[in-house]
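Mods, move this if it's the wrong board.
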Amino acid sequence: MAQDTIFESAYSLGARTFLQRYEKAMPIFSFFKNFVFGGAPILSTEEEILSQYEVRGVKILKDTFRGGSGREFNGTFGYTNKKYTPCYFFYKTRLNRDDFKQAVFGEDITKPLSKSARISAVSAQKAWFFKNSMKATVEKMCADVLFDGVIKHFGDAQGDVAFLENDTEFPVSGNIKTEGSMWTGSTDIYARLIALTEEQFQKSGSYPTHLITGSVIMQMILDDPKIQKLLDNRRMYVGSIDIKRLNKDGVAEVGEITLPNGCVLKLMTYVGFYKGDDDSNVAYMPTNKILLCSRAIGQMGYAALEGIDANGDPTLVPGENYIHIERTQSIPVTRIVGYQSAPLPMPQKLDGWMAVQVLS
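Not the wrong board. Structure tokens:
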């Protein structure tokens, strides 16, 4: 059963209050997924996903003798293909009669639900929690690609890299670097931003449009004397501070600066987090790094998932962000609810971002 069906039915079964309360109480952040990997998703019909990487840059040609045999052209076609096997997530829960004796969260106690309605509401709640946990997991994957260039399994195959071919990481090692000298209060951050954006332009042919950091580094940037002069200049428009309210993805738009090389950077602070194994908050945006990037330089891929055909036989179904399946076991009477997902954040423009460690 597709995920939307059970959620829609849950609204009419008393789960509306439950969902509304948890939407307010439990922020689920998906900024990297939506902003950086927001290209059109690939829904694979296989367990593997074919990814196309854009190859930028061309070399000038050498002239040839007229009447000669000509030179072999070994230029690229602009793209290279690689095939990957993404991480696979399969979770299930068993619901029996004891689960339906008590009112569900958000149920109106003056108008108790029927048994069948309560069963559906409990199933919807389980699916809701899986959906949110999967969102957090995908955001962590996106951060791993941007800052480490690799996705690793989190659970049963921990330590194994989620790839089909011999590569141990995405071919983006040049995007992940460390400053020669860590930033301090005396660092000329303005000059460093010019140098880093120029380096990005030399690699990709275009300047990054956004500078994303945590709150500590953003404060260092705003405290830089040269950047402050830019933002305070009244004679020409080269920058502004216009801090906008933190949005639901944990992002605040701080302002915009124009560098002498022509690069216009929007300054953004990302403070989204997830719960670690010890229940502490873990930031998706590393506190010691900056991210120079543009919108939609990658896309999400979803591998095929396990399903059941019209005859009730096992089959593969085209990938979705996740699917929700239920079945009932007769003895003992148990409803088994299963959830699956096989996501893979895929950078399409390999040189479309730069992650830089600037603090120790």
